[in-house]
Prior knowledge:
The complex is a heterotrimer.
Chain A lengths: L9 H28 L4 H4 L13 H7 E5 L2 H7 L5 H8 L2 E6 L2 H32 L5 H10 L5 H15 L5 H25 L3 H9 L4 H30 L2 H6 L22 H21 L1 H12 L3
Antiparallel strand pairs in A: 1-2
Helix pairs in contact in A: 1-13, 3-13, 6-9, 6-11, 7-9, 9-11, 9-14, 10-11, 11-14
Chain B lengths: L14 H5 L6 H30 L19 H7 L2 H32 L6 H9 L6 H12 L6 H9 L15 H26 L3 H9 L4 H29 L3 H6 L11 H10 L4 H31 L1
Helix pairs in contact in B: 2-13, 3-13, 4-8, 4-10, 8-10, 10-13, 12-13
Chain C lengths: L1 H23 L6 E7 L2 H17 L2 E7 L1 H13 L7 E5 L3 H6 L7 H6 L9 H8 L11 E4 L3 E6 H4 L2 H11 L9 H11 L2 E3 L2 E7 L8 H13 L19 H17 L9 H9 L3 E7 L3 H6 L8 E5 L9 E2 L3 E5 L6 H11 L2 H9 L7 H4 L4 H4 L3 H8 L2 E2 L7 H16 L6 H18 L4
Parallel strand pairs in C: 1-2, 1-3, 7-8, 10-12
Antiparallel strand pairs in C: 3-11, 4-11, 5-8, 5-9, 6-7
Helix pairs in contact in C: 9-11, 10-11, 10-19, 19-20
Amino acid sequence: MSFSVTEPTKGTKWFAGFLVVAYAIITLVPLLWIVATGFKSPADSIAYPPVVVFEPTLEGYVNLFTDRTRATDDMLAEAGPPETWYDEIARERGTIITGPSRYGERFLNSVIIGFGSTALCMILGTAAAYAFSRFRVPLKDDLLFFILSTRMMPPIAVAIPIFLMFRNLGLNDTHLGMILLYTAVNLSLSVWLLKGFIDEIPMEYEEAALIDGYTRFQAFYKVVLPQAATGIASTAIFCLIFAWNEYAFAVLLTSGTAQTAPPFIPNIIGVNGKDWPAVAAGATIFLVPVMVFTVLLRKHLLRGITFGAVRK
Amino acid sequence: MTSSPIQSVAKKTPDGFARKIRGLSDRTIAWIFVAPTIFLLLAVNIFPLIWTIRLSFTNFRVNRPNNDVEWVGLRNYERILGDPDIWNTMQATAHFLIWTITLQVLIGFTLAYLINKKFRGNDMWTTIIVFPMMLSPAVVGNFWTFLYQPQIGLFNYVIAFFNGVDPASFSMIGDVNLAPWAIIIADTWMWTPFVMLICLAGLRSIPDSIYEAAECDRASKWRQFWTITIPMALPFLMLAVLFRGIENFKMFDLVVQLTGGGPGNTTTLTSIDLKREAFERWRTGYSSAYAVILFVTVFGLASIYVKALNKVKER
Amino acid sequence: MKNTLLTSAAAGAILASGLSSVAMADGHATDLTLCWAAWDPANALVELSRDFEDQSGHTMNFEFVPWTSFADRMLNELNSGGQLCDLMIGDSQWIGSGAENGHYVQLNDFFDANGIDMGDFIPATVTGYAEWPKNTPNYYALPAFGDVVGWTYRKDWFERPEIQAEFMETYGRALGVPETLDELTDIAQFFQGRDIDGTTVYGAAIYTERGSEGITMGVTNWLYNYGFEYENPDQPYDVDGFVNSAGAVAGLEAYRELYETGTPPGSSNWYMGENIDAYRSGQVAMQMNFAFIWPGVEADENVGGGRSGYFPNPAGPAGQFAQLGGQGISVVSYSEKQDAALEYIQWFAQPEVQARWWELGGYSALSAVVEDPGFAASQPYAQTFLDSMAIVKDFWAEPAYADLLLATQDRVHNYVVAGEGTAQEALDGLVRDWIEVFEDEGKL
């Protein structure tokens, strides 16, 4: 027999591939429905019965990025003819654009808070994970479980004390406050994951580096970190996904300056009730950065998973 | 997602190794590395927790800043544990937890198993399958209410297409019997990929040599699956269950946007109930006690579970 | 597109900073923040407020929070003494806690000094949005947005001859705007499941929402008209026998009957937005909703332009009432810019501004605006608004309103939507809940 015993047969591969692709397609339907809704007109978005074929429009995206008001005749007269294509779309609905919406700000907040907390979390998490992996830390097991247990608290449960505490510290509704908060929430997962990755890096490398005259910090920085890069990348994806999408704290602790997009998106109100195309457009755009990040780090995600898992 | 997070027996620092440091001692470096994490967790997690515990013995209400705060001892705890409604929400939470975890583990593991057959393009399809978990749960919940609307949503029409019933004849979020399943379906759609990823890590950690040895012993594929694949992947499955369990015990955003806890109290999970007590009724003391009870429950269950997990690992 | 928008925003900012630096010169320019719900009228208020910015040199910022989290977010803000909002257009039920917990500034002296007379406003809005305690001349807000629950119906469907004929045959009377709640239920049942232009349509979209205040704002339209009273008129906080009177029970049963027999499948958690969607997409013949949506209905491509009609909540056996909505505008006591905030209120109270407010789609509560001879004819829904505002009743506005509301939500939703127990049990339970709240508050 010439084939490896562990290599599945062609038939098995086909069958497995078929099932996975079938699942992927089913799972994509709700997602595609969201994306499609973003390109529907408001009437099509709530069509009864729902429409699959429709005339695409950018109205949802215009509505997402602008504030509009229903125009009286004299306002229309005063405003003159529409100047841009998006003006025109708004005018067709009898509205005029009064300015940019707050989606841009909220999105930017999400970028600052999401990526900021992910970065901070990776820095603190890697350091802590390294220490747990390489040194005798007193009460190590208890500390590790303690770190995990901080994730068990329902956000609602600590929201009031955090709110009061942040108010006293002047952190309420600030980027820094949210970054610290999300970092803390994500740290438990990060430390646990990263410790696993660092455990897998053979200690001989560092020993060799130390013998070569590196200090402990240099060894960590120049030897361990590059080795752990894959693990850090895949951990970062999980942290970013959480911080990017977090809702409960964001809705309770932020309002004007530091609010992220998730509390904003589901509630975009148009001139007439909920603006489903704008909501869908907002959700679609909001998905893009995480998606790009994940696709770019795809190899790391999958390799990271397997890498840490190879047993000695 | 590795085997290592669950290793409770930490590796020992070799003695010869420890002596070879210059400058700072290992102990100092260890503390410098760990301290910021511990400090942040103490400040943002533990301090509020202690505050919550303190508040749980009072009748404090945030919306009555001028009222005197009185110590009420264990009265809040007695009221909660004696309230049949809370047991109903616990039941709803248990139903949600058990079914989401069961479905996600079954589907997630199956997918990982199939993907591990390494058919062409499995990388790409894996990435596609992971997309739902990148969405914001609040947005997902919101959109699933839309999908579930019998008249304008897609869900009923798809079901109707496959089994021929009238799309208007059932309502996923309006029916007291179907609503608990509506939230399970949405959560499963969103989080199965997470379980799949962990399972995939587990499957890929099994060295080929073990299967080769089994093949030599003429063990059937079926036997190999039950004696090698499952036992070796079990720690990963259990890790997936742990993380999903913790997350879904806290479930708030997706369900609150999807059903708001209704109809009736059928989908009022504990976090939703807690939010109503804390931020709508503003019974701060009472809700703090409620929060402490929930925390103790998860903490207790998780510690038992982690012990079991470590046992499995050590086998 | 985003680039252009950003550019225009930048241009606006430069312009604004230019303006404010001019005003800075005489030392009055202030950045004011006004907090309200994120909804259609809020966009109109932004537009309206431009005049104020031009006149005063102050800059207006707006913080609009979606209705579903409006109360949580804003009460959190007030309870924590936050300074986010200088001006608050808070819901009518908050006035009690706003006044008693010192969140709002009492406005009597300010009104007197500036010649603002509460007698110039629609009386129901003054009682509903501004006074605490109710029916005493202590004002904590200026009525800002009048709102009331009313009905929208598909005039085009109602007028079809074949539908008219069939209705006449079935019910022995002409199909038209219902005079009573029972007639409304008949019409809803008549349309339920009917085929119109190839699609199945349903009777009415009504409020059933559980999480915030939805079903309460809906069911009270039945309860009031069937004989429900909040308390003994002679003895405050005496609720037993009034909340759960035989009439109230009948009203609750009638609401459930309508829910069971005349509403679209799946309408189990519906409030303003879902009702609008159902109506605009042609699912229902009638919808219950606050009046604020009417300008949007008129402008809608599917149901606007004369295809819709409006009517006030129909009468029941015990009278004709409608649930009050709407808000007053208050100055937040934690604000450090109260003078500028008061300036805004002074500006807002002017009759010209109020007239413009109506024109932009805001429901002015100023009598001079609504009593203007041209008002009733100015919009197809204007008369309905006037008729509705004449029959309003509001929920409790006690400081403990949130507890009273949540109890109502639970009891009513669980009976109407989830079908738990009987109407009598639900209202008896509500009486117990309310008594407990009043005891906690030291009112009993």
